[in-house]
Amino acid sequence: MIPPVIFEKKIYVIKEKKLFELLTKIGLFQQYNQTIRERGYEHTHKWLNSKELLNEGVLENISQYWINDVDIRKITDYNVFQKDLNNNPFISRQCIKDVFKKALLYKYIQGRTAEFNDFVGKELNSIEQELSCIKNMSTYNTRQTSYRQNIFKSILESFLVNIDKSLSEDLQSLENLDVSIDMPIKLENLCLHRVGNLSGYKNSKFQVTDITQQECLKQNTS
């Protein structure tokens, strides 16, 4: 199993299938496969970094989800985890809103897969044409590195420029809600399922030790 990858204060839980699909597309799967056979999955972080693939765009594309990299014992600024009246950490309202917004956006794209794939194809062709016209090697390398680091975020933002009215209204409704963990959110486009409670959180590793349940985002997200 690939261990979580930590990058810029976020912990990305990698989905093996997504990583393999990406590496196959760019012709690096065999090289990666050979590396992990020799050194183990623990070398994934260093290998991605050596191939200039350790960036937000790539990691969001190959991960099931990400969380903020925090150690409860060392928290001094509760901008993600805050304290309730009983001095226990809890997730901030804005963090909850952002998770639900992301779920809505992923579902929006999921319902327009063909359109999204066509859009991505055109964007990639445009980038390829731009790079092929650059004669100066230094400029070429700079542009290529920039695209590698920002391409997924850029394509996603461009695709979502003209979102439909209903999605825009749902996103605005979420922003206006006074959200809390105990408050049910009634939006037709969101699906919630109960999962086992993560009772331990230490040094970026999760331990499930009981069967307590709490609401957690699960379906139609990555």
What does this structure look like?
- The chain is an alpha+beta fold and about 220 residues long.
- The chain has eight helices and nine strands.
- The longest helix has 23 residues.
- It has a domain of about 70 residues.
- The strands form four sheets. Strands 1-2-3 form a three-stranded antiparallel β-sheet.
In the sheet with the most strands, the strands line up as 1-2-3
Helix content: 40-55%
The value of Rg in angstroms is 20 Å
Helix and strand sequence: EEHHHHEEEHHHHEEEE
Biggest sheet record: 3 strands, antiparallel
Principal-axes shape call: globular
Strand content: 15-25%
Discrete helix count: 8
How many DSSP E strands?
A: 9
Distance between the termini: 17 Å
**If you average the pLDDT, what whole number results?**
73
SS-based class: alpha+beta
**Uncertain stretches:** 72-81, 191-222
Task: For this entry, give a set of tags.
222 residues; alpha+beta; three-stranded antiparallel β-sheet; 8 helices; 9 strands; 49% helix; disordered C terminus
Compile the SSE list and pairings.
Elements: E1 5-7, E2 10-14, H1 16-25, H2 29-39, H3 44-50, H4 56-62, E3 63-68, E4 81-83, E5 89-91, H5 93-110, H6 113-132, H7 137-159, H8 165-176, E6 192-196, E7 200-202, E8 205-207, E9 213-217
Antiparallel strand pairs: 1-2, 2-3, 4-5, 6-9, 7-8
Helix pairs in contact: 4-7, 5-8, 6-7
